Amino acid sequence: MGFPKDFLWGGAVAAHQLEGAWDVDGRGPSICDVLTGGSNDSPREITSHVIEGKNYPNHRGIGYYHTFENDNALFREMGFKCFRTSISWSRIFPQGDELEPNEEGLRFYDRLFADYRAKGMEPVVTLSHFEMPLHLAKEGGFANRKTIECFVRFAATVMRRYHDSVRYWLTFNEVNNQTNTSNPIFAYTNSGLIPDPEMSEHERRQRMWQSVHNEFVASAKVVELGHEINPDFEIGCMLAIVPVYPASSDPEDVMRAEVVMRDRFVFGDVYVNGEYPRYFLKMLERERIHIEEEAEDRAIIARGTVDFISISYYMSSTVTADESKPDVLQSGFRGSVRNPHLQTTSWGWQIDPIGLRYSLCLLYERYRKPIFIVENGIGLYEKPDDEGYIDDEERIEYLREHIAQVRKAIDEDGVEVMGYTVWGCIDVVSFGTGEMKKRYGLIYVDEDDEGRGSHKRSRKKSFSWYRRVIASNGEDL
Ligand code: BG6
């Protein structure tokens, strides 16, 4: 009973949120390099190029490019068994469409992955975590079929180079975010789709689903190729799981929740079953969305199915079919309402540990594939006390409750869970708002939204708590 012996405990980050060093050693600009800092009330701006005088927090990250050895030593101190990060595509192919990679970029990840291994951490690597070379986005992003070829070349290059040091690979981070059309940042970061204010909602959805199709083909090609490069590779998809509950037992609400969940399930259905589900084809027909495909696409998708599913989980949502109720959360679908049973974070995310167990059950019953929880955590405003210490009991509480539900899913529901990595195990730049002050870390980084500060790292209270959790394999929560 309890967590399996080889359970992969660890932490998770993404290159663009922590590496910094955005223009060194031959790296080209990525789509995140033209995202300004924002906040809860003012969305991040997507600029066409780097504009002097604007604040671009991803240029700095937390400077991990130069500090990784010391930072990794802190992760080792917590006893991490694995570490999830991503490869910055534009370090390897600065423009994205070159035929030869940038050797300096490859050398950086040689050193980084070797350091994880030396410190006893299994690297878990996302190929595309919201980062595409800006040049490719200007050429249409994933709506342009040529991007499939560029992505496959990038993936093949890094999978060959790191075939001995990396075993766990994820293709596209939170690939389903883009179905949320309430904020253009999602289609932009998932697929490199530059917002066009002239586009109608129908045109936007047409472009988004075309990109998704191209990503399905790209992902399937990479899964197949990866297994040829090293049959021991474990290659998974990565889904943002926000379970959607009906607001009441009114069958209209229940049906609305079922339909909304399809925007998440369609991704798992294609990645795992290798074919488009019928509800999806019906939706395309109904909305008159036409996907350009090549003759072999469906066969490629059928062959390149994933070995496991990885998920992020932060919150749940609730939906009503009653159109007179306003959208209250940033969940991006009509009829979304606040759940009166749940508290929210300062950023409006509904805290729901049982929702994690519920999601694990849904996914496992549907797919029968092992599940890796590669993101879970809470963003908080934090300030060190006079001694420089951060008592983040609220985070401990959040993580404890969620991990307890994972355990139940394993023990009572029989779900196969491979591992658990806390999101932002060290404070990093927030993806959604570009803030530093939305902190997730177990390690505090003295840096503000404008990049000011000593950049000193210090252990929060949750640091020693998580170390105990890992040392006891999840027994001591
Ligand atoms: C996920 C992303 O959306 O959630 C991460 O994969 C992100 O990149 C994390 O940082 C938390 O979101 P945010 O917007 O609070 O940073």
Features:
alpha/beta, TIM Barrel, 14 helices, globular, 477 residues
Protein model, in words:
The chain is of the alpha/beta class and 477 residues long. It has a single domain, classed as TIM Barrel (Alpha-Beta Barrel), CATH 3.20.20. The chain has helices at 15-18, 64-77, 89-92, 103-118, 134-138, 146-161, 185-191, 201-229, 251-273, 278-287, 297-303, 353-367, 393-411, 461-471, and strands at residues 8-12, 82-86, 122-128, 168-172, 234-240, 244-246, 308-312, 317-319, 336-337, 371-375, 417-423, 443-445, 457-459. The strands form three sheets. It has an eight-stranded parallel barrel, surrounded by five helices. A three-stranded mixed beta sheet has the order 6-8-9, covered by helices on one side. Strand 10, helix 13 (393-411) and strand 11 form a beta-alpha-beta unit. Helix 6 (146-161) packs parallel to helix 8 (201-229) and helix 12 runs parallel beside helix 13 (393-411). It is globular, with a radius of gyration of 21 Å. The mean pLDDT is 96. The chain binds 6-O-phosphono-beta-D-glucopyranose. The site of 6-O-phosphono-beta-D-glucopyranose (BG6) has 11 residues, from loops. 6-O-phosphono-beta-D-glucopyranose binds next to loops.
